[in-house]
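ok trying this again, last paste got cut off
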Amino acid sequence: MASIIIVAVTLSVAIAIAIYLEGLTAFTRLEKLDISTHYVKSDGSVVIPIRNTGSTKATIPKGGVMINGIPYNQFDPSATVLVNGTDLSVQSVTIDVGKYYEVEVRSSKFKPGVTYEVKICTASGKEYPRAIYYGGVAATPAPTTTPPPTTTPPPTTTSPPCFIATACAGSGSSWVLSTLRAFRDRVLNSNPVTRALVEVYYCCSPPMANVLSSHKTLALAVRILLVYPAGLFASLAMEPYAFAVGLSISVLLLWEGKLTDEFLSALLSMGLLCMAALISGYCGYYLRFPALLGACTLPFVVPAGIASMVSVFALKRKR
């Protein structure tokens, strides 16, 4: 009962904070394209992966890409831009909420060692620039002799970032990010159940990360009250001796019947708040307010668990 009351109070406070931060504008649908990387293909074309992390669809109109401040077909009349294989000179492309797309720019005027600004413009008037350091292959004369065989290096894969921790990371938070990534790769991805939880997290967290990136104070609160404790827990869980000692103490306390109710109450409170935050985050793809509510809930997850444990312990002492 104490856990339910604490969760209800926490969600009420989170709603009040969300309304205070953005007022009625939080109930609007917003467009946002996330561009975090780019790469150059072997044929010299530039590929820019984008994802719509806003709450409404975005449309890239015909010719809606600029290079160095001018339309791409003026920068190079022979240039082409493909969005998931669709030629942008022929038709516009709609970017669905939460989906990944690839913008591929081909131009014979790209020169190795030169930085270009590629800007993606949408029908709503928003612009998303990306500085591209071009390391493509320069045009070379055809060889007169048969070149020696070359080997293609195996493709490299990179782990996806922890969206919320990355959005909240301060200058001294690199240890937290590396620890959480290691915990995800070594522990959570080691079995199907926790791997499914990781996939749910990656599905639901981008809208909340988007909110945190625009509210520095809220991001600071999440970093101190959630990300740091999670990083500390992950670092201890990956240490065999510390994990064994902690597990032994927990099993002993539960076996003796001590603090059982306190542990269960804390787990229930934190679990319900995490579930509420993830559901709100997923709904944030369609409306901004749920994403804001989920982000405002995150700082209270660990304190609510501690409050539940203390309240149950106090109630048992009074009996």
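PB: full thing came through this time. Residues 137-158 have pLDDT under 50 and may be disordered.
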